[in-house]
Design brief:
By secondary structure, this protein is an alpha/beta fold. The chain is built from 26 helices and 13 strands.
């Protein structure tokens, strides 16, 4: 160890004597004077000690300077925060926009409720949107409107009947509907039509417990049973339960249980007459288990199609406790203005009058609101087979969810070559993320002060995904914001009943924006708005394939171009059209079976 030290010192001494004026750290005059004094090892060691001492002093000084600079920087940040806190109301819109974006990016870098949310590649686009909204431009004239003249030429007429009551003599139909409230609603209407087709008696449908929805609600927990029976009495016979002599039968043993596996999707009426009617005639009862979308829209006789419309739009009314809280929701969405919307009576019945408030009419300006259905729950995300920027952690989580809730899909994914996530996205087959949805609204021209009601707020990735939305649109709310815990308590753990509140909030809105046109809730809401809206209830239906192409250019596209392209893509879906062949009457009720033309 000593010999090594001596070697190093000797080496430094020799180096100093050879190049006295080229030391990178010591000044030449000091080094020159030292070199003339002595060249002995002890002299070199003294020089090394002096040099080492000088280095230490320099490091201490440098550290003190860094600490001092850091102190001044922290002081500046605190002063800036205080200044922003006390003078926020005097800042320009652009300044507030810049601060909002900084907060937005900061929140994205923190962990959300469950995990870090996937921000995708939209930080740049959200910054541009914030800047555009800060300019507070005038909204486009058609933003809150439908093409009035062609849309108002249709009026509801499914209540018209042109047949005699059905005796229901050919036995009984039991139905256990699967899915959430919207799939169940479709199943109920289909069951009503099948009962009339087969001259059978319908037992009040039951709802299957789902591991996804985890809701034990039954028909009478959601819909007015008495109204349902009485309103459809001229069409079919409905009872609350099977006769006692049939209740003891083992329906599976006698071959009277039919599942979705036993029949094709959207089966034609002829299938029921050929294969189902003989079972009913033989056993006097049949049980449809998991009865989903199992009745075709075409071809089907005119009056049967009209009956399906009648069931959906008029026979199914929410129970009073849902209507009461639904009316309270609408009242708060409209900020207690004395305003009853054109659909309120159909949605909340007699409770519509309470929307006015105790003061009756007043001069307060009517507060319009936009409803946005974000279909971005984990079941939708997992079933789409798309990716949303969460990397390997996201892939593992969604794969595990599929294994439990969609085993057939998980098996298909392992055994079949399916389109890649990027291919699915380019084809518009992926649900819009919350970030994409809010960029669409900003591009369409909704200003920063727009009241937005978000349905389906149980978002994949946690509530922190709402950060992007609330940063651009501060007046964004959910039912959880508007209703107190005590008001929501009766609906806790009943997802279908909570979904009924979302249905009311979306259907009654001044404008409704969907993010997935294949969603049952969006389809039912948009159809209900067409049926009762009188041509004054606009719905925004994005073309996801067109939008996917636009969003793919998010790293380079300018806001003005993005705005123009989004508006064009959405306006093309705003035209008034009659129901296309074989398409849902729930979504497209403009057809002669459901609505009549006034011109």
């Amino acid at each position: 160890m000593v010999s090594s030290l001596e070697a190093v010192v000797a080496d430094r001494s020799r180096s100093s004597s050879r190049t006295p004026n080229h030391s990178p750290r010591l000044g030449p005059s000091r080094l020159s004077s030292s070199s003339h004094r002595s060249h002995s090892p002890s002299s070199s060691l003294s020089l090394s000690s002096s040099s080492s001492h000088w280095y230490r002093r320099k490091k201490v000084l440098l550290a003190l300077m860094v600490l001092l600079a850091f102190f001044f920087f922290l002081n500046w940040i605190m002063l800036l925060g205080l200044q922003h806190h006390h003078h926020e109301e005097y800042e320009s819109p652009k300044r507030r926009s810049s601060l909002s974006l900084s907060l937005l990016q900061g929140k994205w870098n923190k962990t959300g409720n469950r995990k870090k949310p996937q921000k995708g590649n939209y930080v740049r686009m959200l910054a541009l949107a914030a800047h555009a909204l800060a300019e507070n431009k005038r909204e486009p004239k058609d933003l809150w409107q439908e093409p009035l003249v062609p849309a108002s030429a249709w009026r509801p007429c499914a209540d018209q009947r042109n047949w005699e009551p059905n005796e229901g003599n050919n036995g009984y139909i039991l139905v256990t509907a699967n899915g959430g409230i919207n799939q169940q609603r479709v199943a109920v209407c289909n069951a009503v039509v099948v009962a009339r087709l087969l001259n059978s008696t319908l037992v009040i449908p039951k709802f299957m417990y789902s591991s996804v929805w985890r809701d034990v609600s039954q028909f009478s927990d959601i819909y007015q049973e008495e109204h349902f029976i009485n309103y459809l009495t001229p069409d079919i016979r409905i009872v609350r339960e099977l006769p006692k002599k049939l209740q003891s039968l083992d329906l599976e043993a006698i071959g009277s249980v039919v599942s979705d596996v036993d029949m094709g999707k959207e089966a034609k009426p002829s299938f029921y007459v050929k294969h189902i009617l003989p079972i009913i005639l033989k056993n006097q009862v049949i049980h449809f288990v998991g009865f989903g979308n199992r009745l075709a829209f075409d071809p089907i006789p005119f009056e049967l199609q009209r009956l399906r419309c009648r069931c959906n739009f008029q026979a199914l009314q929410f129970v009073p406790r849902i209507q009461e809280i639904g009316a309270l929701l609408l009242k708060r969405l409209r900020e207690d203005t004395a305003h009853i919307g054109p659909l309120d009576h159909y949605l909340v019945g007699s409770f519509a009058e309470s929307v006015k408030g105790k003061g009756g009419t007043n001069s307060k300006k009517v507060s319009k609101y936009l409803a946005l259905h974000l279909r971005f729950e984990i079941d939708m995300v997992a079933h789409s087979l798309c990716e949303f920027g969460g990397g390997e952690e996201e892939r593992k989580e969604l794969e595990a969810y599929r294994e439990i809730h969609f085993p057939a899909l998980a098996l298909l994914k392992k055994t079949t070559k399916l389109p890649s996530p990027s291919e699915l996205r380019s084809e518009g087959l992926c649900p819009l993320t919350p970030e994409e949805a809010i960029l669409m609204l900003a591009a369409l021209g909704f200003n920063r002060k727009t009241h937005i009601y978000v349905a389906g707020s149980n978002l994949y990735g946690g509530r922190s995904r709402l950060v992007a939305l609330t940063s651009l649109y501060p007046k964004l709310v959910t039912k959880e914001n508007l209703l107190s815990p005590d008001e929501l308590k009766p609906f806790a753990n009943y997802s279908s009943q909570l979904a009924a509140l979302d249905f009311i909030g979306c259907t009654a809105s001044d404008a409704f924006a969907m993010t997935d046109s294949g969603s049952q809730l969006s389809s039912l809401v948009s159809g209900y708005r067409i049926y009762y809206g009188g041509g004054r209830m606009p719905t925004i239906r994005p073309n996801k394939r067109r939008l996917a192409d636009i969003f793919m250019k998010n790293s380079s596209i300018e806001w003005r171009v993005f705005e123009q392209r989004v508006r064009k893509a959405v306006r093309q879906t705003k035209h008034v059209q009659t129901r296309p062949k074989a398409r849902s009457i729930y979504r497209y009720p403009r057809c002669k079976e459901c609505m009549c033309r006034t011109d």
